[in-house]
Design brief:
By secondary structure, the chain is of the alpha/beta class. The chain is built from ten helices and nine strands.
Amino acid sequence: MVKMSVVGAASAIALGSIAGVVAAQPASKANRVVAQLEAGRPAMGTFTRGAPNLDFVVIDAQYGDFDPDAIGERLRSLSSESEALPVVRIPLSAVDAPESVVGELIDLGVPGIMFPDIETPAQAVRAISSMRDASTAGVWPQAESGRLLAMVQIESTAGIDQLDAVLDVPGIGVIFLGPTDLAESIGAGGPDAPEVEALVQRALAVCVRRDVACGYPIVARSAGDAEKQRNRRLEEGFKVLAVMIVPR
């Protein structure tokens, strides 16, 4: 999983410039990520703060106490920063009972939900059901005109082993990989270890074969490094990238 907070304004501006290279045409639909993917364009975002030209920003509620009021304030702040789609990553403790938080998030106006560490089809079914049951807006692509987006994180070898079966669950819009947790799950030295990259490519291959957008987090040291990593991952077939610039 990605464990990030807010980067500096200069980094956010640089990230916006990088995203602008890809998102040259603004998304016209209410759900910017869906609009990008349906148009055959990648969706660019971040786990940090809004910036021009971003398609999504993840508001991370995975750690600490679940605080809907704080999330509501972040939504209002984000709407003034950019037109990026807000995606809330729910607490890990709610993965097996997502309905305990998802309905409240959708009531707040959250159009995108990220479910961390999904390992089984049963967890995926419950995730999608929690969104579908909480709103009449519909979950894309199960509902062709749906306005809600489900991002399912795969962060363990168990999740990769079950990925084909997970993708049999209708309504998954994006599979988002967590290389740091993948590394921890196999005792590797870090997210860039060759054995972790092998798992990443294995999961990507499944997503490409199943025609489901695959996402990946990029942690870069500079705008140039971010652009280099972005280009590499796009060439490999990733469709959704969250880019964080963390200067040395």
